[in-house]
Design a protein that fits this description.
This protein is α/β, with parallel strands linked by helices. It contains 22 helices and 16 strands. Helix 8 packs parallel to helix 15. The radius of gyration is 24 Å and the shape is globular.
């Protein structure tokens, strides 16, 4: 199938916009690659320090002829998604040794859970942790003794931060190995109902806690289609995972075999062999367009609207919100996974998953097949399905059809003809909305504004019974410069209750909402933010605001905003407590949310 003209046009536009920065990046990568294996240029004393503790691998390392893998791990055992990584280094070392190579843990990176910090002060460090992860991975790889890197990470900021590091060290190959989702627990829609009952006082904390524990119950990624699982989708669509690796449960023979296969592949694609595939060649404009199409086709997390531009900048590529919107216009929504539907990612994977979707989108001309991946040349490799044969991974053709069309539909008969994300532009600036989970009749909301500076103030107003009519709830001073741009997912039960009472409500904010947020229309990431005196700082209570997800607009009506002075918030308290003191330099230097809200790229 020929490439869709809009896909080609957006790709060409990104390539033209990025010409200078991409060329400079590729020249840097070529210069680094021309030096050959890093260890060949190091003194014996340097190398002795690097190999001192490596036991039976020491002799192989000292010879310097076998490829050496650097492992960057986000392991900790308080995150369900990252706890399985505890056992990966030994498995990777053994697999590398059996294949004639070596592997070392180059370094660890932090991994925080937005589920733990949701609505808490620690959430104000969440977005910035992405850049810290990139920095920490860079420190680990700076020892410069590695021919390839394996990255162990899954969740919200971890994978984007690791991709930023991988792109920076783009002259060596990079393979990303996931941990997989936990097995299915309490259905997500039932959990959401319990949260709403708690929000209105119908049940107590004990029942709420029981519900949450039944939902988040074991090792692996949370099973709803939030940011973590959107990350895993991207790694397949962009060619950094092995085919079919994303949604295999932890601690299973298939999961371990995929880890072994990923290690073997990392050894095969170093500069010491004949299949050299540096990650700078994988992460090109076409790969990012493929990732954007995957985001739209699956109804993925809005957080990736922040992360993808930052990831791309690390590879010299400049993405714009218009790219997201234009690709969404021509990409069918093929999946219904919570919060867009009732199924979880295990059900999605069983129905045909990413392999089916990639095949359908390739056949529809909506993906670039002519890309390099860690599995080889061509995205069509990712239509294959991994099988476990005598303890090893083999690949065969996927089913080629959906096994449950309530969850996964063909591109020719999708749930919606357009993708899940839409750019919003108007006199309130630029932002985005995830419309795929919002009922069509709620895509346009025009109502008086109520303005707040904290999400706690919104909850207090709700408890006081102040929301009795259609309302646009504006929560400002939630951008990266204000307080690190925490997610406002804690408002979802409150807003859902108001909507269920028959009110037309919407959220307008310069902050974030997670991929777990659902049915309430939310204009998010408004840029410039209030702390930059953006238009959102000029709204007053009672102003009529119109959010139109069909036209992609966000405006205050009947008001000349230029006649107003920006609101000033007291942000002095945002710099203290739970480590916020350490991030003042980040708040001061962070970029616009429309450009990825990044500090280090």
């Amino acid at each position: 199938m020929p490439l869709h003209p809009k896909i080609a046009a957006v790709t060409d536009r990104i390539r033209a916009r990025s010409e200078d920065t991409r060329q400079a990046y590729l020249e840097n990568m070529a210069r680094a690659a021309s030096e050959g294996p890093r260890r060949a240029h190091m003194a014996c004393g340097n190398l002795a320090h690097a190999y001192a503790a490596m036991g039976e691998d020491k002799a192989t390392l000292a010879e310097g002829r076998a490829p050496n893998i650097g492992i960057i791990t986000a392991y900790n055992d308080m995150l369900s998604a990252h706890q399985p990584f505890e056992l990966y280094p030994n498995l990777i070392r053994a697999a590398a040794r059996a294949a004639g190579g070596t592997a070392q843990v180059a370094g660890g990176v932090p991994a925080m859970c937005d589920g733990v910090t949701q609505g808490q002060t620690g959430m104000e460090l969440s977005l910035f942790s992405r850049d810290v992860i990139a920095l920490a991975a860079g420190v680990g790889l700076s020892h410069n003794v590695f021919d390839a890197a394996i990255y162990l990470g899954v969740c919200d900021k971890i994978v984007p931060g690791l991709v930023m590091a991988a792109a920076t060290f783009g002259y060596i190959p990079s393979v990303f190995l996931p941990a997989g989702p936990m097995t299915s627990g309490l259905p997500n829609d039932e959990k959401a109902k319990v949260r709403q009952k708690f929000a209105v006082g119908e049940i107590g904390r004990d029942e709420l806690m029981a519900s949450e524990m039944a939902s988040y119950h074991g090792p692996g990624t949370c099973t709803f289609y939030g940011t973590a699982n959107t990350n895993q989708m991207l790694m397949e669509f962009m060619g950094l995972h092995l085919p079919g690796a994303s949604f295999v449960n932890p601690n299973t023979p298939m999961r371990d075999a995929l880890t072994t296969a990923g290690t073997e592949r990392a050894l095969e694609i170093t500069a010491l062999g004949n299949q050299y595939t540096p990650v700078c060649d994988v992460l090109d404009e076409k790969a990012f367009v493929n990732g954007l199409v995957g985001l739209m086709a699956t109804g993925g997390s809005t957080n990736l609207v922040l992360h993808l531009p930052a990831m791309a900048r690390a590879a010299g590529i400049i993405l714009d919100l218009q790219d997201f919107s234009d690709l969404s216009d021509v990409t069918p929504l093929m999946a219904k996974v919570y919060p867009n539907g009732l199924a979880d990612v295990n059900h999605f994977h069983a129905a045909g998953g990413l392999g089916f979707m990639i095949g359908e989108l390739l056949n529809a001309g909506l993906l670039h097949d002519d890309v390099k991946t860690v599995a080889g040349d061509g995205l069509h490799l990712y239509t294959q399905e991994p099988k476990l044969t005598d303890g090893r991974i083999t690949y065969s053709a996927g089913a080629g059809k959906s096994l449950n069309e309530k969850i996964l539909r063909p591109a020719s008969d999708p749930f919606q003809p357009e993708g899940g994300l839409k750019q919003l532009v108007g006199n309130l600036g630029r932002g985005v909305i995830k419309a795929s989970a919002v009922a069509k009749e709620r895509h346009i909301v025009e109502a008086p504004a109520r303005v707040f500076h904290t999400q706690e103030a919104v909850k207090d107003a709700f408890k006081a019974g102040e929301f009795t009519e259609d309302t646009i709830i504006v929560v400002r001073f939630q951008g990266p410069k204000s307080n690190g741009m925490p997610e406002l997912h804690g408002l979802t039960p409150t807003l859902a209750v108001l909507q269920d009472r028959g009110l037309k409500v919407a959220l307008v904010t310069d902050g974030r909402m997670s991929g777990a947020s659902g049915k309430v229309p939310s204009a998010i990431h408004l840029s410039p933010e209030a702390a930059d005196n953006g238009p959102i700082s000029l709204i007053q209570d009672g102003d009529i605001v119109r959010l139109d997800a069909t036209k992609g607009t966000i405006d205050v009506l009947g008001v000349d905003l230029t006649t107003r002075s920006p609101a000033i918030a007291d942000l002095t308290g945002n710099g203290n407590g739970v480590g916020r003191e350490l991030f003042e330099v980040f708040r001061r230097n962070v970029g616009l949310s429309s450009e990825g809200a990044a500090v280090v790229v």
